[in-house]
Amino acid sequence: MTAPSEQGRAGSRPSSTALIGTERVSLSHPEWAGAEIPPGTRRLPLISADAVRRPGVGHTRERLEALGRERASGVWTPEAAARRERGAEIRRETLKDMSGHLDRLCASLEANGAIVHRVSTPEQAREAVGQVARDHGVSLVAKSKSMATEEIHLTPYLNGLGIDVVETDLGEYIVQAAGQRPSHIVGPALHLSKDDVTHLFADLNGAPVSDRPDDLAAFARARLRADFKAAQMGICGVNFAAADTGTLVVVTNEGNADMVTSQPDVLVAVMPIEKVVPRLSDVGVLVPLLSDTANKQFVTTYQTWLSGPRDPDAGGDGPRELHVVIFDNGRSDVLGTPLEEVLCCIRCGNCQFACPVFRTMGGGHGYASIYGGPIGAVLSPVIGGHSADADLPFMSSLCGACADACPVKIPIPDLLVDLRNRYVEEHPRPVEDAGWRAWSLAWSTRVGYAASMIGARAASVVPGGILRRLPLVSTWASVRSLPSFTGAGAVRRAARKKDGHDR
Amino acid sequence: MADLASPGPALAALDVLRAMGFDPVVPADAGCCGQPAFNTGQPRAAAPVLRHTVGAFEGCDAIVTVAGSCAAMVAHNGPALVPAASGFVRRMWEFTQFVAAFGAGLPLHLDATVTYHDGCHMTRVLGERTTPRELLSRIDGLRVVEMVDPDGCCGFGGTFAVKFPELSAAMADVKLDHAAATEVDWIVSADPGCLVHLSGRAGATGRALPTRHIAEIVRDALVPAGVTA
Amino acid sequence: MTDELIERFRREAEANGTTVEVLSRDDLRARVRDLVGGRAALVDPIPLLQGVDLPAPPADPWDAEIGVSEAFVGAAESGTVVLPQRPDAPRRTSLLVNTHVVLLAREALLPTYQDAVDATAALRPRPIGVQFVSGHSRSGDIESAMIHGMHGPAELIVLVHP
Question: Which of A88, A173, A483, C75 is in the most buried spot, having the most CB atoms within 10 Å?
């Protein structure tokens, strides 16, 4: 372990330049937006009520709406629709033999000279990465974007080993410095305004900085460049892992993944199982599909293909050791069930742009989970340790914009209903369950239904003040005026009147 | 929903169907499609309710509903929940679809401006994006002004509205802001659920934004026999 | 056919902020010499540039301002150039610099991105790394404003030659 006093000594064990000044950061955030969600925080209705009132939420919502409109969920040009069909096919082909493709991927990676760590749990994944870092005496890691590393809580773990880990994607760097979680899969700092970033960088700098976006970027670039140069180890995510050739494909617009995967001597790539694709050729479909839905680009500026470590005797660059950590975290358990379709996700974030709940909450923090938005509401309850997120599927109006937006045709609303079924089975709630049974009984018989209409009409003469205190009614009435129940049953009565007898 | 809290659309629909020359019945056993329970993880509670309703309409040549989301529920989930529902689905029509198909000659006139809200389940689950506006365009004197994001969710979502009231209300506020900007006489939709939620929120926030179901608009537009439009 | 492809490539690449020049072999050699000038440069060993007077690399490659690489193939549909990594063609040539110059032979220009993917996947021996580049470095992470030049080169120049 490195004692804190040893860090930063020039020439010995480097520490991060880019993270200098984070102790000065004054940009505040609610605790449910933090880098690590405190245990016991999760009461979704309360968090969501706060989220819709968070300062700046209106501007973020408008930005998300504009990004969503630009992507026009549900509208696919003929070319895009064809690509979507093919992408959806490739992803489902992968599901049919996930373990076979993973076996082939591991064999190909190892044939290329990569060291593969195939593990189950986030703990095992973290430990595998930590071991590599310790074996090489690493004190500074430069990292490119990876939601998977968020899922396994990698950075705090490595910090605990005395290792500095710096996020090099600009958006990830911003939220890291601010002590927050990424808000959107592709745009982690979408919820922050230019002013927020200016104040943040001024805090890091210990002095004012220019508020022009290019200047803010230049500030970050200079700091991060120093860390790219000094880092002994790189950690990267994986967009697609081709089983036939053992090639990892990473896409960016900034070029940071190229830096992280070519300059340090040691590289660890971290991926959950569903990143595997059958053939390298498949990325010819999947990269444009991802780039279009994530960024409205034909392809991102950079795609990086990694097929192995460099020969230590040869010149050039690239890591001398390439490690690939492949973790499961509960995903295999849903293979062969309808929920397996969540493993088709290519992490484009288009569902998040399209989602009215996500937009109205100003991003993903209100989901109080690593993955937010529609895909998060399905993935979070599925992955290991999911009991904390089991109720997330209820935080959706099931509007279906996400299904329209999904480039690989994941039927998210149907999966949300499946998960709601599962939740009800696993979390019996005597009062609520009894209420539904009573409703079901009443409304499946003529007498019961008629009685409930009479009851509703009777309720309409109860003074509003009393009515509004009843459960359910009170929740409705807390934000909306009540409809009138005086007409309850009127439709039936009107029909009877018109022909003078019951049918 | 219609029967409980919003009978207006169904009563209007009955009038329209009669004007089209039909003799509509409301079977005594007609009830709920089961959607509130089905969508909230209680399919076992939903099934008997849907089965009861499906049984009620046996012998009807066509079944017309004024709730787009109910049509979507039954079409998308009905048969898997209650096998007999497949027959029901084959005879089922959402209101605007029925009027568009069989009411071509109906003279319609209404001097009003409206904006149309596309209810989510009718739009995305039933796949019906055009018929309501076609129907509105047939009404002489009616002007439709589009709001921003007409197919954006109003925030009702069934039990979502009571499980996440502030979030649901915030979504309604966005929709109401967009609707208010059109400065029309009525916000129109084909889903009573959306309309009850939106009018409830408008009422609670003191906004004068009247809502009306498309069946009521069509009924209002019916030209009495013997009167030229 | 190739002229159409080059025009398509030019359109797509320029839409992404890339500078595209179509030159004869002699003009290209002169152009590279002019672009590099006296700047700190990383230049991969490219047969076409043999004999051109170019400076030795700086002692620290991180001090380089301009890099010169040769593309394996290009894709007209997306304005992409493909750069396989070799011991004598390291990735730092295209990364550490502010201006990146890429030489692309006309015959190496393929119609689609998929074509470029397939051609590169078939390359033997398989390179340990490949970079597909379709423009200059950028980011949209600050209030969605498009920032020009993040970690990779802020300027990409593609020289197409016979």
Answer: C75
